[in-house]
Design a protein that fits this description.
The complex is a heterodimer of chains A (about 130) and B (about 750).
Chain A lengths: L1 E2 L3 H12 L9 E2 L5 H8 L3 E4 L8 H11 L4 E6 L4 H9 L4 E4 L4 H12 L4 E2 L1 H8 L2
Parallel strand pairs in A: 1-2, 1-3, 3-4, 4-5, 5-6
Helix pairs in contact in A: 2-3, 4-6
Chain B lengths: L6 E7 L4 E4 L1 H7 L7 E2 H4 L5 H17 L7 E3 L2 E2 L11 E2 L2 E9 L12 E10 L3 H9 L7 H9 L3 E6 L4 E4 L1 H7 L3 H4 L4 H4 L4 H14 L3 E8 L9 E12 L4 E10 L1 H23 L3 E5 L5 E4 L1 H7 L3 H4 L10 H17 L3 E8 L5 E12 L5 E10 L1 H71 L4 H28 L11 E2 H15 L5 E6 L5 E2 L3 H18 L7 E9 L2 E8 L6 H6 L17 H11 L3 E7 L3 E9 L10 E5 L3 H13 L3 E5 L8 H10 L5 E4 L11 E3 L6 H14 L1
Parallel strand pairs in B: 20-22, 26-27, 26-28, 28-29
Antiparallel strand pairs in B: 1-2, 1-8, 2-3, 4-7, 5-6, 7-8, 9-10, 9-13, 11-12, 12-13, 14-15, 14-18, 16-17, 17-18, 19-21, 22-23, 23-25, 24-25
Helix pairs in contact in B: 14-15, 15-16, 15-17, 16-17, 17-19, 20-22
Classes of the chains: A alpha/beta (about 130), B alpha+beta (about 750).
């Protein structure tokens, strides 16, 4: 499950996941307004979340998701990477942080790791965070 | 020589210009008495010089209009007329007394002091016969007309005998003394004017003993007429030969000058007050005539200017004035004279020490009844201190105006720079947004391309995909470069490091883009694995600014180039940026790191480029070296410290945290440090020593142990507790300590 306001990105990511037999693609939302509610209905293992979303705050939505659907693990997939944004994401309950420019491979690996219960930071995110 | 008695009177009529002679005078001159005769005819018997003197004396006396000043002594040589064929020449020592008789005032004739006729008495006082008659004869024996004349004359006349007893006193003198004429006769001077006798004793003695007249002797004192009132008289004393027996006497003519004397004294007092006032005043006081000739200069003037009284008078005082002020002062004086206004001018006067001081000079004209300026009286006040203060004030004002102008210019430049900075900030924001949006735009492209590449494509299609991927990577690097450039170098967290190779991949497209057309970017990255102790953003800012400056220096050259070389040596990262541009003069080189210094137009540059480079480099304790040569180019080398090696050797780590996400996070971070990590799910609380011991037992052989509970009393140094509900910041702090240990 994916929350992304940029439809081109969302569709491209969807195409990737749909074409990969290891995953079951549940769909994507363009806002985080009803993330917890939709997650409750669709019970995803991993929810990929973009941070810069219109409407509800992505961090607040992740906190709500963690409280209401602890089984649905949030993984941030963002074009923004700063130690502050990583801090906020982890505080909000994210299991990992993938920088978009790190590519699709990083995202796929992240989803797999998170679904297994492992914490993940993509290379750029780790570098930024470790230097903070 | 026989002596003859000659005495008589003449009467002059101004309306006809003629005189009438008394019988005695007429007989003397051989003319009929009582006939009006022209002056020259009446006195034709008098030799010409004496006659001219006599006529002049009469005219002078009449012109003077003051009856008290009509005394005029003259000597004449007469040629008596008569039967004697031999002319007789006599030496006369006569006194002429004129009494102007004033025409009674009429409504149409305002002057009351214009004489229309005058009476004159002539007495041959050197003739003993005449004197003897006066001395020996009783008061009433005098010839009636002459007696009337003398008795009523407005001057005091008296005759004393040798024993200084009054033989004759006219009414005027008797009135002065407060006694009747008769009361004087036979009494001594001491008896009549006892208070004044001491003053006149020496005069009387001189007249009687030496026979020398004493004229214009001022006598003052009180008389019985006005006791208690001091009066002054002008007296003349002359010897009188009294007949053949040689009896001698003293003739007296008394003219009261009390009022004149009082006026004179008042004038003197006034003058004394004026002089005292001028001396008491701090100002220099002076007066001058309408032609600016000094007529008076006070002691202060003389002392201040060092001029003597003689130096100052006339045009001399102008020598004390500053030559540059003279023309202006004269013009001001002319204006004041024409307008009848007070004169006022600031002028410089040369002091006695040779230095000039400023004075404020003011003068008031004294105007005559005919509206003519009689003279100017004025003062000069020292205003040197005021002038100096004005000068200081003027200089202060000038300095203040300059400061205001400088500040205004500074403010204008600041506003210009601020506008430019705002524009640059806007451009930065735009670059950041562009980088972000470009990245977002490239993500789906890249994903789609990956999907496409996964399909079985023809070699041509695969070649196209590869080319597109290369372009995408370039665009991605450019976007990343923009993102880094948009970051504020000062805003990054301390301790951030940059791997040169990764950084260069993002920086190169942007640095190429910043060069002007025709300029080539050459690069040599010798040690891409070097990691510098500086943030990506700061390094990007340094490189961007230096490459941009170098590129601008080559603008206009067809073969312009900018070369960037990066290498590591001696635990330092060297970044050298060289160009073949214009180079810098020594003056520009000395100032190039000053903020806001620029050789470009303000609309093109802020002058902050190199200053920002220095700021970024100084912040990480680096160095900047510049070498430049005009028309040859510039070479700038930046030295930066290498990042400390954070991880030396891999260790064994145990993470025992109940929360799976946190445990996984900590484990991931420790693995990133190179640790071999074992994760334990343990809910046991570790508050006591037993628990610690169990922990220690369980972690035997581990280099690092991170547990979820704490604090742990007595735990080994390698055991770190992050608490039951740690924040990520707390975890990060623990990881920092772990890094420090490893």
């Amino acid at each position: 499950m994916y929350v992304e306001d940029n439809r081109e990105v969302a569709e491209a990511v969807a195409a990737h996941f749909k074409g990969d037999a290891r995953f079951m693609w549940l769909g994507y939302l363009t806002t985080a307004d009803e993330l917890a509610k939709r997650a409750a209905a669709m019970t995803p293992d991993v929810v990929i979340v973009d941070l810069d979303l219109p409407g509800s705050d992505a961090f607040g939505a992740m906190k709500e998701l963690r409280q209401q659907q602890p089984g649905a693990r949030a993984l941030v997939f963002s074009g923004r990477v700063t130690s502050s944004s990583i801090d906020q994401a982890l505080e909000a309950g994210a299991w990992g942080y993938v920088y978009k420019s790190d590519g699709m491979d990083a995202l796929l690996a992240g989803v797999i790791d998170v679904s297994r219960g492992d914490f993940i930071l993509s290379p750029t995110a780790r570098k930024v965070y470790s230097q903070a | 020589m026989a002596s003859r008695e000659i005495s008589g009177f003449v009467e002059w009529h101004s309306s006809t210009g003629t005189v009438q002679l008394s019988r005695e005078v007429a007989a003397l001159l051989g003319l009929p008495p009582g006939i009006a005769l022209p002056l020259r005819t009446a006195f034709k018997q008098i030799a010409r010089p004496e006659r001219a003197a006599l006529i002049a004396a009469i005219r002078t006396a009449l012109a003077a209009r003051d009856p008290l000043s009509h005394e005029s002594r003259f000597a004449a040589i007469l040629r008596p007329a008569g039967s004697n064929p031999e002319p007789v020449t006599l030496h006369l020592d006569a006194r002429l007394h004129f009494t102007p008789h004033v025409t009674p005032a009429r409504p149409s004739t305002p002057p009351i002091n214009t004489p229309t006729r005058a009476l004159g008495a002539i007495s041959q006082i050197s003739d003993s016969n005449c004197a003897a008659r006066h001395i020996s004869a009783p008061q009433t024996d005098l010839a009636s007309p002459l007696h009337t004349l003398i008795r009523t004359a407005p001057v005091g006349i008296a005759l004393l005998d040798e024993s200084l007893r009054y033989r004759y006193v006219n009414d005027y003198l008797a009135d002065i003394n407060g006694l009747s004429p008769e009361a004087h006769l036979g009494r001594t001077v001491k008896e009549i004017v006892p208070l004044m006798v001491d003053d006149i004793a020496s005069v009387l003695d001189s007249v009687l003993r030496l026979g020398a007249p004493a004229e214009n002797v001022l006598v003052s004192g009180q008389t019985a007429k006005l006791p208690g009132v001091d009066r002054v008289w002008n007296t003349s004393w002359f010897p009188v030969q009294a007949g053949p027996d040689g009896a001698r006497g003293v003739g007296i003519v008394v003219h009261e000058v009390t009022k004149q004397r009082e006026f004179q004294l008042a004038l003197r007092r006034s003058e004394a007050r004026f002089r005292a006032l001028t001396q008491a005043m701090p100002q220099l006081v002076w007066s001058c005539d309408p032609d600016i000739n000094c007529t008076f200069a006070s002691a202060q003037w003389l002392e201040a200017t060092g001029q003597s009284d003689r130096d100052a008078l006339g045009q001399g005082w102008l020598n004390a004035m500053h030559p540059e002020d003279l023309a202006r002062v004269r013009r001001a004086w002319e204006v004041a004279a024409q307008s009848r206004q007070a004169f006022e001018a600031d002028l410089r006067l040369k002091m006695s020490d040779g230095r000039y001081r400023w004075f404020l000079s003011r003068a008031q004209a004294v105007i005559s009844g005919e509206d003519k300026i009689e003279y100017w009286i004025g003062t000069s006040t020292d205003i040197e201190h005021r002038k100096q203060a004005e000068g200081v004030l003027a200089r202060d004002n000038e300095a203040l105006e300059q400061i205001v102008a400088d500040r205004t210019e500074e403010l204008r430049r600041f506003h210009q720079q601020q506008r430019f900075s705002e524009r640059m900030a806007l451009m930065g924001t735009l670059a950041a947004g562009l980088g972000h949006d470009l990245s977002n735009f490239l993500v789906p492209l890249k994903i789609r391309l990956d999907l496409l590449a996964a399909d079985a494509l023809s070699p041509d299609s695969m070649e196209s995909v590869t080319a597109i991927r290369a372009s995408l990577r370039y665009a991605q690097r450019l976007a990343e470069g923009l993102r880094l450039l948009a970051q504020d170098p000062a805003g990054v967290r301390p301790g951030e490091t940059t791997k040169v190779g990764e950084w260069w991949a993002h920086a190169e497209p942007l640095l190429s883009a910043v060069l002007p057309a025709g300029a080539a970017l050459r690069s040599t990255i010798r040690d891409p694995d070097c990691e510098a102790a500086i943030s990506n953003a700061a390094l990007m800012q340094i490189a961007f600014n230096l490459v941009r400056n170098s590129g601008e220096a080559t603008r206009g050259r067809r073969d312009g180039w900018v070369e960037i070389t990066i290498w590591c040596a001696d635990d330092q990262l060297f970044i050298k940026i060289a160009d073949n541009g214009r180079g810098m003069s020594e003056e520009v080189l000395a100032r190039c790191q000053d903020p806001f210094f620029t050789t470009k137009a303000r609309s093109e540059a802020t002058g902050l480029g190199l200053a920002v480079v220095y700021s970024c480099v100084n912040q990480v304790a680096g160095r900047v070296e510049i070498r430049s040569e005009v028309d040859r180019g510039t070479e700038i080398t930046v030295r930066l410290a290498l990042a400390p090696k954070q991880f030396v050797s891999a260790g064994v780590a145990l993470v025992r945290v109940a929360d799976q996400r946190l445990r996984s996070y900590v484990a991931a971070e420790l693995r990133a440090l190179g640790c071999e990590v074992t994760e334990l799910i343990d809910d046991a609380r570790a508050h006591d020593v037993q628990v610690v011991d169990r922990v220690r037992d369980a972690t035997q052989g581990c280099d690092v142990v991170v547990i979820g509970e704490g604090p742990v009393v007595g735990a080994p140094a390698n055991v770190y507790a992050i608490g039951p509900s740690p924040t990520h910041r707390a975890i990060r702090d623990v990881l920092k300590m772990v890094r420090g240990q490893t």
